[in-house]
Amino acid sequence: MKTIIKVLLKLIFSPKAFYRLCIALMRGTLYIVWIRLFRKNIKIRFPFFCYSKVEISGNGKVFIDRGCAVWTNSFDHLVISTLSPEAEVNIGKRCTLGGLTIRCLGKVRIGDNVLTAATLIQDVPIVCAKFCTSSTKKMQKSQISIGNDTWLGAQSVVLAESGIGNGSVLGLNALLFKLIVEEGCLAVGNPAMRPIPIRKLNVLKSGSSV
């Protein structure tokens, strides 16, 4: 409740921020109405904040839960491409999606309160430019799962057969391929090899022994 009051006070005393919020909410609402009329395979719950463009293509199912926001980033807008009618993309509540690109042939699940920054999530090794059915049928389907309260750092990449547990962080320019990051860990490197528990880093920072 205190957090909501602080946000409201900030908006009241910052007309520019309030104006941007209203425009983003209006754009998101119009987009929800449009997809309900013309794109039955896509479902987005209100409220949806569009500070940047949203591009969703393909015949697969896409679900974005309430309270998500699409922000401008170095790679600009949100792009979701489903590469088969069986593909499923699920994005949880209150996610901050900055420059996120998803290419899905199987299943991609993103939890609640996830932050992304110029991130690529792709569950197939090769992607055709125009959804070539002859090629996509030969690709092996996999599932990518990203837990709640995770942070995917700038220019990070999550590839096939990878997953990230709750409360974990994917570092700047990190790449995951066939790697499962356990809950509460930091993964860095290209490719990332040995995720480090965040609690151990906090202990080292405080100068205490593990």
**What's the CATH H-level homologous superfamily?**
Hexapeptide repeat proteins
Helix content percent band: 10-25%
User: What integer is the average pLDDT?
Assistant: 86
Order of helices and strands: HHEEEEEEEEEEEEHEEEEEEEEEH
Based on DSSP secondary structure assignment, what is the total number of beta strands?
21
Alpha-beta classification: alpha/beta
Q: How is the largest sheet built, in terms of strand order?
A: 2-5-8-11-14-17-20-21
Distance between the termini: 36 Å
Number of DSSP helical runs: 4
The biggest beta sheet is recorded as: 8 strands, mixed
> Could you say what the CATH architecture is?
3 Solenoid
Could you give the topology of this structure?
Blueprint: H1 2-12, H2 15-38, E1 42-44, E2 48-50, E3 54-57, E4 61-64, E5 68-71, E6 78-82, E7 88-91, E8 96-98, E9 101-104, E10 107-110, E11 115-117, E12 120-122, H3 133-136, E13 143-146, E14 151-152, E15 157-158, E16 163-164, E17 169-170, E18 175-176, E19 180-181, E20 185-187, E21 196-197, H4 198-206
Parallel strand pairs: 1-4, 2-5, 3-6, 4-7, 5-8, 6-9, 7-10, 8-11, 9-12, 10-13, 11-14, 12-15, 13-16, 14-17, 15-18, 16-19, 17-20
Antiparallel strand pairs: 20-21
